[in-house]
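pasting Glutamine synthetase for the record, 481 residues
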Amino acid sequence: MDSKQVLQTIEDEKISFIDFWFVDIFGELHNVGMPSYAIDETSFVNGLEKLDASSIVGFKSVNNSDMILMPDPNSFKILPNDYDPGHRKNARIFCDLYDGSTNKKDRYNRDSRGIAHKSAEKLGEFGFTHTNWGPEIEFFVFDSINVYPSPYAATHSGGGSGYSIESKESPWAKGNVSTAIDIKEGYYPSQPKDTLEGFRKDVCDDLYNYFGIKIEAEHHEVATSGQCEINLVYDEMIGMADNVIAVKNLVKVKAKRKNKVATFMPKPIFGDNASAMHTHQSLWKNNTNVMYDHDDEVAQMSQTGRYYVGGILSHASALCAISNPTTNSYKRLVPGFEAPVNVCWGLANRSTAIRIPMYNRNQEKSKRIEYRVPDPTANIYLLEAALLLAGLDGIKNKIDPGDPIEENVYKLSSEKKREYNIGSLPVSLKGSLDALSSDSNFLEEVFTKDFLETYSELKYKEYTAFAQTPTAWEVSMYADA
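structre below
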């Protein structure tokens, strides 16, 4: 759509309000609503003078906080009824962020969507036209989460703290024999054990009917207590990032309407599998998949594709600061729970950081890599941008990833890993931030130093805050009885 088509649709569909969406540097969605009668052609030409950037974490100081929201008419979508049940018909538009303090409309350097745009522009320097992306979005839907004795005590534990998860599927729930799913036994169950099949289908229907987002598949995941997965049909970079934001928000909205709690926290349940966001990606030059090579006997992967893999693996530790950006992320990146902790690649091998899907040979359209490290707390715009820049750095510097690993990496000895030159990912958020501080050159043409310093400073503070907080587990293990 262009702006004229948007305005005509607003009139024809009798849209009452437009919600203008944007994300902060951590990928959290923010919104300002305006009545449709307040929007005209100048709203798309001059932008909206509606943003006090000092009130958004990681944006601007109070003495220089005026910013402009520039609506992207191509992102216009009518919202499902769950956003305003029984009242108004609303629509949403994603906004790009511009600095209002200069005469020139400068794209704000901490605008995540702008960073993704800028990284996509680098493709032309390599003769590529576009990339395709296909994330697998995992999350939990619980009946409730109870924090004891209060949410305040969870971060100020002198008075004691703890939490409980309630779910009809949990093995600890009373009286739910027919719906109980044991730890690590939740993969593809049928009803009645899968109590969320209808919820997922409702989400998928709305994603397609309202947002135009095509779904490849939906299913219950391995963990108990409502772990779900929705796979999106591939799309180009910005479109897919917008889609991921829409999926995460709709899941939360629908869960709330049903008096449930949806969370994209990677590891909410001790001892069970965690949620990932495996990210499929491919490089294209018009209609040619640059990653595909019919004559390659091993993986039908081109040399360009191998260099792309090499770039991501060589920067994997630094990438973790973006792909796994929370303290809880590193509760997932541990051995024994199907999470990749080893820096290597393989064919159809889910124990490696990068997997080359090998369902069928001689399929140029579907040749891609799957990066298995990210989790759903990642800012999708930054994640796509960082992975692309790492891969392009691999192509530029001809970084060879070595031979693909055919064995189960989880079971390899330390000696064997050294023989195969398999490294390990950071074990904490601090470790990933330290890696980023020493390995950020590949990002800095797109991610400015100002952005990286601000992002890292806030994340170091997050790590420190949680590192200082005693947990119930630590008390039970180390306190004298």
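The CA atoms of residues 296 and 302 lie 7 Å apart.
The longest helix spans residues 237-257.
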